[in-house]
Specification:
The chain is an alpha+beta fold and about 280 residues long. It is built from twelve helices and eight strands. It folds into two domains: about 140 residues, Jelly Rolls; about 110 residues, Arc Repressor Mutant, subunit A (Orthogonal Bundle). Strand 1 and strand 2 form a beta hairpin. Helix 4 runs antiparallel to helix 5 and helix 9 runs antiparallel to helix 10.
Length: about 280
């Protein structure tokens, strides 16, 4: 079925959570490109005082493993992508260490399906078999690089040991990333040689959501990245680059995921940054 398919390996897409980077007292990250051309993001942040408003997370299509590095009350959760903007309370004066990865990295060792993880936080110990001492060592490790090393050796090798995604999912995800979410199910069905019904069923099993919704999240993230990180852009640059029909189409998609228009989203982030520095 997939004999004519070409691999997409030259895309550079990885979603982000802007408030993790802008509203914390410090934030560091390290991106690791894997042998299968997927990317794993390791990050660490700390909030020194309670925020006036809780931080928020936005849809990113990823799975995060987040460690609450408190020696007295340590915790680790597997966090599936949210489907709408959501406020999250983080503890002040505590370090958080996280690992974010795209569904391209198969997680067959998880005890929950990808669909069950969406928009949920599940204790890591409920998701995989893990020795309690390993989590204690990681949380008590002081250095960022040391935590990365421990995770890769003691946890990551178990989670990512198998990368047997069906060819239809591997191809479809790469196509979605490389086109910035501008591909529809009929096109994917034609290119892979499978029916749209079968494609949707495979996405439910391995990604946890329909391909149309996942594509919209990828496009939303790409648009947000352009707005927040590139200067001298007009709204039409964002519209044209990401395949929106017009300004209303862009605004409606932002409202769907972020509850705010692009301009209001930028204003909100800027205001929160100002509040933190004053």
């Amino acid at each position: 079925m997939l004999s004519i398919i070409q691999s997409f390996k030259n895309f550079d897409y990885f979603p982000f959570q802007p408030e993790f980077e802008t509203l914390t007292d410090y934030y560091i990250e390290y991106k690791q490109r894997n042998s299968d051309y997927s990317t794993t993001l390791f990050y660490q942040f700390k909030i020194n005082q309670d925020l006036m408003d809780p931080m928020s997370v936005i849809p990113d299509g990823c799975i995060d493993i987040l460690f609450y590095c408190d020696p007295v009350r340590p915790a680790a959760n597997v966090c599936g992508t949210v489907l709408k903007y959501k406020k999250i309370n983080f503890q002040a004066n505590c370090e958080y260490f996280g690992v974010r990865f795209l569904p391209k990295q198969e997680t067959q060792h998880f005890k929950y399906s990808m669909k069950e993880v969406i928009d949920c936080q599940i204790p890591l110990a409920d998701m995989i078999t893990i020795e309690p001492t390993i989590m204690e060592r990681l949380i008590n490790e002081q250095g960022f690089r040391g935590r990365i090393k421990l995770f890769k050796e003691e946890i990551g090798n178990n989670i990512f040991a198998c990368n047997d995604l069906p060819a239809i999912i591997d191809y479809s995800l790469n196509k979605i990333y490389s086109t910035k979410g501008n591909v529809n199910m009929n096109q994917l069905a034609v290119e892979t040689g499978y029916s749209t019904r079968y494609l949707r069923k495979q996405f439910d099993a391995h990604v946890g959501m329909p391909p149309k919704l996942f594509s919209q999240i990828v496009r939303f993230q790409n648009s947000l990245h352009m707005i927040l990180n590139k200067q001298f852009l007009t709204v039409w640059d964002v519209i044209n680059e990401n395949g929106f029909y017009d300004q209303s189409h862009l605004i409606n998609e932002f409202k769907k995921f972020g509850y705010l228009t692009p301009n209001k989203f930028m204003h909100t982030v800027s205001k929160k940054l100002s509040d933190q520095t004053n």
